[in-house]
Write a sequence for this structure.
């Protein structure tokens, strides 16, 4: 006889009604797994005591699939906002968390996502202090969307600003590119490789704090290379700083399996999303010291090029054979629903 199907609890519209079922969901999941002294007050907002110059950021996460090799939408939401604050030179402190859940979503999957949120928050050293939960009708959403907003205190030694970038500054990345985008795409397309491609989703705040602790305002600029990948970030930078970028192709690390996946799908790794890669721009004189520090912290950093006024507004990629080409801005949406 066939095994009897085990009925799973689902999230229903009454879980978002504000009544008894909402209270039970909050108490049994949100407050249970995300408990901390501020959230435990269960107020409509959070009471915070913060001193110093602040950074504030917000982002929404609509990724599909919501569970992928190396992570899920929950930890992605925490890491994404933590990293945005870090790129401002801030030490992340507090996050808000809002869910939009489609009716019929598995309760167990929701619990797993919330648990991963707690684990990511603990790893980053931040508190989830306020939030919201809404449920929409079946067919009016896509399983679950998450919004996180964050507050951080600007590091006393930080002066991260586009105007700080100087001609000749080095471009440094902390590890290989395109892993996140290819983890998502291989999951969507059902691609199999000799070894699994894992998303690189990670919090970057400890790395950035260590860089600023040691090098202070010599760290001229930081930006994480998420949607649109490394190429898009560099185009954003060149547009703002009124200079260009000269890259060296053989210095840009791409894991072998990731490169194979990109070739199979006809994608350029330079445009593929990352969730744990950032670009650091600093004087060339300290570039090797930055690489040394990042390496000591467990990263696989590389100096990938330099800022150059001679190629104003352009991103130029030089091959190992000396040939050069212009890296164009990304046109359209290469990988939708990637974060």
């Amino acid at each position: 006889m066939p095994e009897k199907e085990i009925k799973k609890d689902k999230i229903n519209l009454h879980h978002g009604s504000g009544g008894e079922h909402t209270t039970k969901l909050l108490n049994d999941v949100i407050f249970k797994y995300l408990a901390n002294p501020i959230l435990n007050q269960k107020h409509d907002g959070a009471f915070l005591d913060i001193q110093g110059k602040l950074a504030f950021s917000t982002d929404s996460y609509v990724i599909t699939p919501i569970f992928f090799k190396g992570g899920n939408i929950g930890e992605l939401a925490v890491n994404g906002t933590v990293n945005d604050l870090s790129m401002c030179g801030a030490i992340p402190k507090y996050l808000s968390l809002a869910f939009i859940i489609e009716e019929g979503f598995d309760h167990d999957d929701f619990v797993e996502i919330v648990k991963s949120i707690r684990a990511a928050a603990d790893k980053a050293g931040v508190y989830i202090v306020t939030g919201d939960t809404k449920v929409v009708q079946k067919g009016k959403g896509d399983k679950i969307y998450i919004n996180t907003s964050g507050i951080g205190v600007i590091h006393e030694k930080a002066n991260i600003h586009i105007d700080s970038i100087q001609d000749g500054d080095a471009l440094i990345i902390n590890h290989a590119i395109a892993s996140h985008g290819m983890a998502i795409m291989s999951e969507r397309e059902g691609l199999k490789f000799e070894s699994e491609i894992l998303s690189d989703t990670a919090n970057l705040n400890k790395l950035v704090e260590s860089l600023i602790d040691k090098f202070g305002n010599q760290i001229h600029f930081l930006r994480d290379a998420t949607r649109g990948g490394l190429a898009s970030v560099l185009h954003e930078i060149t547009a703002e700083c009124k200079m260009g970028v000269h890259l060296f192709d053989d210095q840009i690390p791409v894991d072998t399996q990731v490169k194979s996946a990109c070739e199979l799908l006809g994608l350029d790794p330079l445009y593929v999303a990352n969730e744990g890669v950032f670009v650091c721009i600093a004087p060339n004189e300290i570039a090797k010291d930055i690489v040394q520090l990042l390496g000591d912290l467990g990263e696989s950093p590389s100096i990938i090029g330099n800022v150059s006024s001679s190629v104003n507004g352009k991103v130029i990629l030089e091959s190992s054979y000396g040939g050069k080409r212009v890296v164009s801005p990304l046109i359209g949406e290469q990988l939708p629903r990637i974060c």
Observations:
- The longest strand covers residues 90-102.
- The chain has a mean pLDDT of 94.
- Residues 107-124 form the longest helix (18 residues).
